[in-house]
Design a protein that fits this description.
single chain, mainly alpha, CBS-domain, 3-stranded mixed sheet, 21 helices, 67% helix
């Protein structure tokens, strides 16, 4: 935050007296809409709503596109469809407008669409046909296109008729008479090419559009791979529908990073950092319940060897080492595979090699650390048998953990389960159960 935002944040954290509200409103007039949106996102829920209600419809329309999407529905929770439509009609980009409508409850979203003016309704209808996580849901229909048979001079005169080009315009799209995409014409090419040349002679080679139903994470990979600023979006017949720009892709990348980080802790992107206590508690309860079940399973396994633990108390001291080393090894493989899947570098052709590599690495590390732990255990407890048992259990558990961590993401994804959220829970269960069974099982064999 800059100094102005920090000053407003300090005022918000104070009691919202009429005097403070006047000061806040006056200070907000000096901020850009994007900064106001960021300020709203970082404000606790109650104060956020009070701050939002200070804005007039024009300012709300400018700011709403920059607020965290998961908070938008809450800001409009007490508004009618007509009131919401009056605000969001001022949103400039059609993709942002469609996103806001999709974030509303289904029935309310349909009502908003009905009361929007005809121009906004038409520019949004195409986008609403596609899910938010596809190229069609991400695209903007505000595009500039020309025909291939016209000259560069005609293109230049056509562009000069526009008061303003769409944001992030680095190229214009070329279509035929029916509107089917034929290629791209970079602005730089237009500026340096002989005006008498035809557009068809100047098309950028190798640039193809993406289909509207392509997942957004795959679109992001294309932007990264080819260093793109914009890309056309097509339907299955090749008809030009819209375009995706780099600012949309940055949002996708940030959302995916948030999803991966929060998923590891059983949270999702709907969890508001500054949400009320009860709402946050409800959102986290399911994850805590799942972890409790895994802990109960591990406890059940330990209970099977109660008699052995009573005879050799050192087992209780050493058990966490076996489970912890397996857990860390598995987490390393799990994280690596999830990241590779997100980047599109993990294919069926290299999956087998990756599993064998992870297994070899885990065994090598397992032998090294197991040897050290075996020597330390034998010296500390004056028991070479116990040192041998923990060493073998450690190597076995680390090997199983590495293979499980490498295979789980693919298995969970085939079951339509998000590996970023469920992977850690399942992996923890596997490493705990295998570790305790191996360690305590061998101890029972030697000491019973």
């Amino acid at each position: 935050m800059n100094n102005d935002q920090n000053h407003i944040a300090e005022l918000i954290n104070q009691p919202l007296t009429p005097e403070n509200l006047v000061l806040i409103k006056s200070s907000l007039s000096e901020l850009a809409p994007v900064d106001i949106g960021n300020l709203l996102t970082s404000t606790p829920a109650k104060e956020r709503q009070q701050l939002w209600d200070l804005f007039d419809e024009d300012l709300q329309g400018e700011v709403v596109a920059y607020v965290d999407p998961d908070l938008v529905a809450d800001l409009f929770s007490d508004r009618s469809a007509e009131e919401i439509a009056q605000v969001i009609e001022k949103v400039a980009d059609s993709d942002d407008l469609a996103d806001i409508i999709q974030l509303m409850p289904d029935e309310l979203g349909e009502e908003i669409l009905i009361v929007l003016d005809s121009q906004d309704r038409e520019r949004v209808k195409t986008l609403l046909r596609y899910p938010r996580d596809t190229a069609g849901g991400l695209m903007d229909t505000d595009i500039i296109s020309v025909r291939s048979e016209v000259s560069i001079d005609v293109v230049l005169r056509y562009l000069r008729r526009h008061q303003k080009l769409p944001d992030a315009t680095d190229q214009i799209f070329v279509v035929d008479k029916q509107g089917f995409f034929t290629g791209c014409l970079p602005l730089a090419t237009i500026l340096i090419t002989d005006p008498r040349k035809l557009v068809s002679e100047c098309l950028e080679q190798g640039i193809e559009g993406v289909l509207a139903d392509l997942p957004t994470h795959e679109v992001a990979q294309l932007f990264e791979r080819y260093d793109l600023i914009s890309m056309p979006v097509l339907d299955h017949t090749g008809l030009l529908l819209g375009r995706i720009t780099i600012d949309d892709i940055v949002d996708v990348i940030i959302d995916e990073a948030d999803h991966s980080i929060l998923g590891m802790a059983g949270l999702n992107q709907i969890d508001d950092t500054l949400a009320p206590i009860l709402k946050t508690s409800r959102n986290r309860a399911l994850w805590l319940g799942a972890n409790l079940m895994t802990a109960l399973i591990a406890s059940f396994v330990i209970n099977l060897f109660e008699d052995t633990i009573e005879k050799v108390v050192a087992l209780a001291i050493l058990m966490p080492i076996v489970a912890s080393m397996g857990g860390v090894t598995g987490s390393q493989s799990l994280t690596l595979v999830i990241r590779s899947m997100a980047q599109g570098t993990l294919l069926e052709s290299n999956m087998g090699w990756l599993i064998r590599r992870e297994l070899a690495v885990s065994v090598l590390n397992g032998v090294v650390w197991a040897s050290l732990i075996a020597v330390g255990t034998a010296i500390l407890f004056n028991d070479t048998t116990l040192g041998m048992i923990i060493a073998i259990a450690l190597v076995i558990n680390m090997a199983v953990a590495a293979v499980s961590g490498a295979m789980l993401p693919k298995i969970l994804k085939s079951l339509n389960i998000d590996p970023a959220i469920a992977g850690t829970v399942v992996l923890t269960t596997i490493t705990d159960v295998v570790g305790f069974l191996t360690f305590l099982g061998m101890a029972t064999y030697f000491y019973a």
